Amino acid sequence: MAKSGVFEGDPAMVARALELKKELQKLVKAVADDDDVNLEAVERAQRMLCALKDFKLKKSVSLNLRDHHYGQGMVAGTVPEEFKCPLSKELMRDPVIIASGQTFDRPFIQKWLKAGNRTCPRTQQVLSHTILTPNHLIREMIAEWCKNHGIKLPDSVHYINEEGLTEADRDHFLSLLKKMSSTLADQKEAAKDLRLLTKRMPSFRALFSESLGAIPQLLSPFSQSKCKSELHPDLQEDLITTLLNLSIHDNNKKLVAETPMVIPLLMDALRSGTIETRSNAAAALFTLSALDSNKALIGKSGALKPLIDLLEEGHPLAMKDVASAIFSLCIIHENKVRAVRDGAVRVVLKKITSRVHVDELLAILAMLSTSQKAIEEMGELGAVPCLFSIIRETSCARNKENCIAILYTICFNDRSKWKEMREEESTHHTISQLAQNGTSRAKRKASGILDRLNRVVNLTHTA
């Protein structure tokens, strides 16, 4: 990634050069030791060499390390870990302490907090407040270390803006977007860079919400292709994954979902491309569906059908993301209706019967069981014996609870299943055991079924 504000002898640049050299050594060894040619390792090594060449040409740092040592045998030019910001991995210019007691560089932690995060990036502890307190001790230690090594520490105001991005970073961002309208080689290179940058740096995700037309620019290769199948699979995967990365940023969720071409492209990606592309498209829909307005938009767009189709295919890499997306979308009633109409009950019950992702799929089935049509389908597809068998087999209290909740709804809406339930209770005492030992909700549902069945028996005897 391009940098600006580079000063002669900048320790961050020196540290980065050392990291590049170490990584390059590992990659070369991996390529040499592997019986087959690892193309990814070769490409990464080439990028490392180009980066090192840039360092040399710009004369930003000197890679000729002397035998001078600092502290406990530290090589001159290597930044002590305690002087690096945990977020930027670079020498801190303005160290500040947050509520968890951890120290960060001010612009980077400001950006973290501005994005809506209220936890410590290092400890994940929830912050009691967001006041930033200058860490004078660390700042003085950094200043002394820089003085001993003849390094000029630049003023943080001139080094970086409050969002943790340099102007060169912004220029690089714009240049990558411009490449998306260039040749296939440029598109592939830019897409891969954007995928990595939006994965690693929240600040790059935020740039998309600040830049008018950035998302359509990102997706311009789709517009240029006469049909989706013409798009290179790797390029499609990188672009869809970048959309997933962008959707993680709260401020982007509405923007991404409401960009007209996004949802149709994610739906196309669910049907085609590599399995990683399809899985990441499902994950993107799940992430976007955190907003209720997006749930409605995604459901109206018809995304549930390709999600259900992908679930039916059952590829292990995609199952969890697909199940999560379907569950989240079906929180609103309109999408439950759509999911039932699009065959979700049959597909979900088939997977559960095969004991595939039972935890996630039972939660979906329990949610769909509020639909009368879904209940009717469950009865026709043999859901009752399947659910009872899971209750007997599983040790998971949550799964038992979801099973009995579905059976409760079936019991009160489908009289034809009472006989099966009475026989199950007579043979295995499944319902009464759950009424005694289940979760509080499971006890209520199991007791409700027993009461209903007992009343039916009593009425029959009285008659």
From TrEMBL:
Reaction(s) this enzyme catalyzes, per UniProt: S-ubiquitinyl-[E2 ubiquitin-conjugating enzyme]-L-cysteine + [acceptor protein]-L-lysine = [E2 ubiquitin-conjugating enzyme]-L-cysteine + N(6)-ubiquitinyl-[acceptor protein]-L-lysine
EC numbers, comma separated: 2.3.2.27
Pfam families found in the cross-reference section: U-box (PF04564)
GO molecular function: ubiquitin protein ligase activity
Pathway where it operates: Protein modification; protein ubiquitination
Domain of life the protein comes from: Eukaryota
Domain U-box: 78-152
UniProt keywords, alphabetically: Repeat, Transferase, Ubl conjugation pathway
UniProt-listed InterPro entries: ARM-like (IPR011989), ARM-type_fold (IPR016024), Armadillo (IPR000225), RING-Ubox_PUB (IPR045210), Ubox_domain (IPR003613), Znf_RING/FYVE/PHD (IPR013083)
PROSITE patterns, per database record: U_BOX
A single GO BP: protein ubiquitination
Enzyme category, top tier: transferase
PANTHER family (UniProt xref): U BOX DOMAIN-CONTAINING, U-BOX DOMAIN-CONTAINING PROTEIN 9
Protein name: RING-type E3 ubiquitin transferase
Species whose genome carries this gene: Sesamum indicum
Lineage: Eukaryota, Viridiplantae, Streptophyta, Embryophyta, Tracheophyta
Gene field: LOC105170536
